[in-house]
């Protein structure tokens, strides 16, 4: 029986996490990781603009849908924006939110303009200077007006990589005292457990009997998979048994199929007759709820992206002890594979055998594209022919990921929130 003088346990502080949608991107995966991590010490409410992309999303926290659509013309978008701010302000008051954390730029603006006295934190997942979606006049306004003026109102800005922090402070003029780096974390135990599971047929058979390059993530332009297909076509000319496995779905699916046709690369698509996978050069696995089962069996994991933040798929491959070859794009791959090194003053034009993987040129410059593709081809062919080198790279990759465990990075987040 409790004593009448016993002090009741303090109520957990209310924490709100905000993101535009619950799609299949890396930011959404980090959002879900943070929601699970913080659910112990805080009373967490997860909030989205709408549930259009939330198929299969599960959470033990309260999930609040603002039910405000996106799209439409300029006037409709302005109306939707102010409606989101109004509804979020009401939610913050009702939940007596102590700290609100937003993920992705659209959510950042709504979070900043709906404050009710809580501490507002922004989690920045990608480059602002190299984001190809920030183009034209609106892109200029976002980079040079909205971000420099509005972001400084946050109590803290957390970037997932040191490269993004440097952009915000050195290029966009945000106060250095407000911007700190907390890398994404990787639940190594869960990743390895999933990696030990057998992929579905026919992928398990293909991965067991062929050298396979694997790329995982959204099939989006910034992932630069169209360039990867051209590289792979040349690799396959020298190693005909090699296959390319793409795990994920996205808006470039049709364009990727067309590029395969142009390059005379036979294709297997998820759902087709299993026998077709034996002769296909490129296999499209589509969305997979457990991508680690594919990644863990890759001969080489490849990341040809034009830009990244702190790429989750790359880190998961490293946890699985896979040798990785990644474009030296802004930001993330260099920080993960070659810690302590600075980006070269001129774009990388040759393979860099880094401490924990291989860095390669970003295939985007029309003046150097043929030479950059050749660097990729030669490097991948050499790695495919050298099992000992791949094994050593995989071990080095796994060692690196010990710096990004859930416990290590989780303590950084908890320390920040406690300080706020």
Key features of this structure:
single chain, 420 residues, alpha/beta, Rossmann fold, 2 domains, eight-stranded mixed beta sheet, seven-stranded parallel beta sheet, 16 helices, globular
Question: What does the model show?
Answer:
- This protein folds into two domains: 14-185 and 405-419, Glycogen Phosphorylase B (Rossmann fold, 3-Layer(aba) Sandwich), CATH 3.40.50.2000; 188-403, Rossmann fold (3-Layer(aba) Sandwich), CATH 3.40.50.
- The model has no long low-confidence stretch (mean pLDDT 94).
- The protein has 420 residues and is an alpha/beta fold.
- It is 41% helix and 15% strand.
- The strands form two sheets. The protein has an eight-stranded mixed sheet, with helices on both faces. Strands 3-2-1-4-5-6-7 form a seven-stranded parallel sheet, sandwiched between helices.
- It is globular, with a radius of gyration of 22 Å.
- The chain contains 16 helices and 15 strands.
Quick structural overview:
It is built from 16 helices and 15 strands.
Helix content: 40-55%
| Overall CATH architecture of the largest domain | 3-Layer(aba) Sandwich
Q: What is the strand arrangement across the widest sheet? A: 10-11-9-8-12-13-15-14
Secondary structure tally: strands: 15
Distance between the termini: 36 Å
Mean pLDDT: 94
Count every helix, treating DSSP H or I runs of 4 or more residues as helices. Answer: 16
CATH topology heading of the largest domain: Rossmann fold
Which spans of ≥5 residues are poorly predicted at pLDDT below 50? Answer: none
- CATH superfamily membership of the largest domain: Glycogen Phosphorylase B
> Major β-sheet, in short?
8 strands, mixed
Number of domains: 2
Indicate the overall shape.
globular
Main structural class: alpha/beta
Strand content: 15-25%
State the name of the first-level CATH class of the largest domain. Answer: Alpha Beta
Radius of gyration of CA atoms, rounded to a whole number: 22 Å
Pfam families: Glyco_trans_1_4 (PF13692), Glyco_transf_4 (PF13439)
Protein name: Glycosyltransferase involved in cell wall biosynthesis
Organism: Hymenobacter artigasi
Domain Glycosyltransferase subfamily 4-like N-terminal: 25-189
């Amino acid at each position: 029986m409790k004593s009448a003088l016993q002090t009741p346990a303090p109520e957990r502080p209310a924490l709100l996490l905000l993101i535009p949608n619950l799609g299949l991107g890396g930011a959404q995966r980090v959002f879900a990781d943070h929601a699970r991590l913080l659910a112990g010490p805080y009373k967490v409410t997860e909030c989205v603009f709408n549930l259009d992309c939330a198929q299969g999303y599960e959470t033990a926290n309260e999930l609040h849908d603002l039910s405000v659509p996106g799209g439409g013309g300029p006037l409709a978008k302005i109306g939707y924006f102010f409606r989101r701010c109004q509804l979020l302000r009401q939610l913050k008051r009702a939940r007596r939110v102590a700290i609100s954390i937003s993920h992705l730029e659209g959510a950042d603006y709504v979070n900043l303009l709906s404050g009710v006295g809580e501490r507002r934190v922004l989690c920045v997942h990608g480059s602002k200077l190299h984001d190809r979606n920030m183009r034209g006049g609106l892109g200029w306004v976002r980079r040079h007006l909205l971000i420099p003026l509005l972001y400084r109102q946050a109590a803290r800005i957390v970037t997932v990589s040191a490269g993004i922090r440097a952009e915000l402070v050195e290029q966009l003029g945000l106060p250095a005292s407000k911007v700190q780096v907390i890398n994404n974390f990787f639940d190594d135990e869960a990743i390895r457990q999933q990696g030990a599971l057998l992929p579905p047929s026919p992928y398990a058979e293909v991965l067991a009997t062929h050298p396979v390059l694997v790329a995982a993530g959204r099939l989006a332009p910034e992932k630069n998979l169209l360039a990867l297909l051209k590289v792979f076509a040349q690799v396959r000319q020298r190693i005909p048994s090699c296959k390319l496995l793409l795990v994920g779905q996205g808006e470039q699916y049709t364009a990727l199929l067309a590029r395969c046709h142009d390059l005379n690369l036979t294709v297997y698509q998820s759902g087709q007759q299993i026998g077709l996978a034996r002769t296909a050069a490129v296999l499209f696995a589509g969305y997979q709820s457990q991508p680690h089962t594919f990644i863990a069996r890759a001969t080489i994991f490849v990341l040809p992206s034009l830009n990244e933040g702190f790429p989750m798929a790359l880190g998961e491959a490293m946890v699985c002890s896979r040798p990785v070859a990644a474009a030296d794009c802004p930001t993330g791959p260099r920080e993960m594979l070659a810690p302590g090194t600075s980006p070269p003053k001129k774009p990388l034009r040759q393979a860099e055998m880094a401490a924990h993987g291989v860095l390669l040129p970003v295939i985007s410059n029309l003046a150097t594209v043929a030479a950059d593709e050749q660097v990729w081809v030669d490097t991948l062919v050499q790695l495919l022919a050298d099992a000992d080198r791949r094994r050593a790279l995989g071990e080095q990759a796994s060692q690196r990921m010990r710096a990004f465990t859930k416990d290590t990075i989780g303590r950084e987040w908890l320390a920040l929130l406690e300080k706020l």
